Amino acid sequence: MNSVSGRDKISDSGRILAVIDIGSNSTHMMIADVRPDGSFQPLECIKEQTRLAADLNDKLLLDANALTKMSLVLRRMKDVADKYGAAIRCVATHSLREARNGVEFSGRLSKKTGIQVDVISGPEEARLVSLGVRFGLPVADVTSLIVDVGGGSTEIILCRNDQIKFVTSLKLGAVRLTKRFLDKDPFSQSDLSALEDYVVSRLEPVCAEIRSIGFELAIGSSGTIKALQMLSIASQGGEAGKNFHGTDFALEDLQAISDTLFKNRSIRERLLLPKMDSKRADIIVAGAMVLKVLGELAGVSFYRVSSTALREGLVVDTISRDIGRINVGIGDVRWQSISELGRRLRVEEQHSFHIMNLALSLFDGLGFEPKIVQRWRDLLKYSAFLHECGKFVNISGHHKHAHYLIINSNLMGFNQSELEVIASLVRFHRKRTARLNDEDLGRFDQDDAGWIVKFSSLLRLAVSLDRGRLRRVERVHLAGGRSGKSVLTVGFKSNEDNRSELYELNCEKEPFEKAFGTTLEVRVQYAGK
Fold first, then answer.
1. Strand partners, 44
2. Domain membership flag for residue 222
3. Which of 124, 397, 406, 460 has its CA 20 to 30 A from that of 425?
């Protein structure tokens, strides 16, 4: 399935986009009017407190009741999105990452609702948060420490312009910590001390890294910091408005309101505090502890509050995939991630670029529908570049090593299902061919498995044409491929001995012919002819 359904591309007249964030505490949807120039205007926002983190049992499993609850919420959101004619992009964060059955759960949720649910990694969630923050605040040229305390995890990013200097995702979410340390009502002083000791132990090494890099501005996003600032203002007798975006929350004020919360140990007592959000009264203590300790250990004097975060980042990221640019000054993060991984794993770039160009030429010749091109051409491109990265581990079985490395890479710009597709294309570029009934494709739906079979056969053809790394093949063109006969024209640079390339190509004809239900005729051309 594609990550974005509905009207696929931004047209000259723009489009409507709905983004959904399945968090550990709440599920949010924002509907945005996307303009042709890449800017956008929010039209409607919906929030449901779904508390998915609390549904994780002791074995880290989500049950049928959680599935039913989430299905109802997503169906309601889809009904609203459909009224706008909106394309939908939906991501799930910490709770589905944490759940042992998270992949199965997200797949069943997708089938029940008709919305593709993509589970994203912690670093990818952090990147999207930073995109959203930088969209909403003029901080591009400032080295910023961005902190987002969610229900299941806390994302921490140090960035300046399009350079991410440090990123991590810690299991320090407000719901998660409350469930572990403050589940008694009222909690005791020893419970609070245990919570503080745990948070300090997890944040000390991270804050040491933050201090060594340095930052100019600390930014707090998400509902936790906004709720704390509202409580702080009300406790001082001030008028607490609803919009705190761009305002500063002094650490001493955060410490003072945190101490107040720590003294009011029962939910009932906290509900009596002015401007306490009844839906956060149980988890606000844990959230306050994270922000307070981080501020003290990292040397924060104040947090600038941002109302924009993950959802706005999702919109910006989706727009960038459609029109090839991001208006907050970020480059192609997906290609940057792929090329950086290639450098770390010491891929032979000249050869990898050559295979990538051959694979894309084969793909382009088949004339797929735009909705196929939009996703699969990029995934084939990335897999072609990384097809030999497993040699970093061992040349023997390097396709299997590459599969493991890619799936566990946490590449920014990709959800987990996309990483699994890239890894599978690489896995089947040599040795055993991909088949629909292959157990290694069992995690994919039937459509995706079918495309992996097809496009891995294209990658095999491309690799066969430069097995000797001599780059004798200058160009290729593939016509047909759906039924009947296909013709592959191979253009060599010269008429020197090209028998090895043609031999290797002949060995890879069969997987292509089976995948596309066709016969393949090879024609040879030479430069200047």
1. 31
2. yes
3. 124
Q: What is the dihedral of CA 383, 386, 388, 393, to 10 degrees?
A: -120
* Residue 332 confidence (pLDDT): 62
- Strand 485-492 versus strand 519-526 pairing type: parallel
181 in the same domain as 75: no
Residue 482 confidence (pLDDT) above 80: no
The neighbour count for residue 7, using CB atoms within 10 Å, is 14
Written as one string, the DSSP assignment of 373-401 is: HHHHHHHHHHHHHTTTGGGGT-STTHHHH
The enclosing H or E element of 423 equals helix 416-427
In a domain, 316, yes or no: no
**SS3 breakdown of the chain: % helix, strand, coil, rounded to 5?**
50, 20, 35
367 falls in which pLDDT band (50, 70, 90)? confident
Tokens 């109302």 found at? 307
Looking at the structure, tell me whether residues 405 and 504 fall in a common domain.
Answer: yes
* DSSP structure class, residue 147: E
Distance CA 28, CA 46 (A): 6
Lowest mean pLDDT among 42-51, 55-64, 157-166: 157-166
Is the distance from CB of 317 to CB of 324 less than 8 angstroms?
no
Compute the average pLDDT of residues 298-326.
85
User: Beta partners for 164?
Assistant: 159
What's 98's domain CATH number? Answer: 3.30.420.40
HSE, CB side, 13 Å, CA atoms: give it for residue 204: 6
Tokens representing 308 are 């924009």
Give this prediction's pTM: 0.72
Domain extent for 275 = 138-307
Q: For the chain, how many structural domains are there in total? A: 3
Contact between residue 100 and residue 60 where contact means Cβ atoms under 8 Å apart: yes
Burial 175-209 (b: 16+ CB within 10 A, else e): bbbbbebbeeeebeeebbeebeebbeebbeebbee
Q: Closest Cα partner for 298 from 389, 208, 399, 432?
A: 208
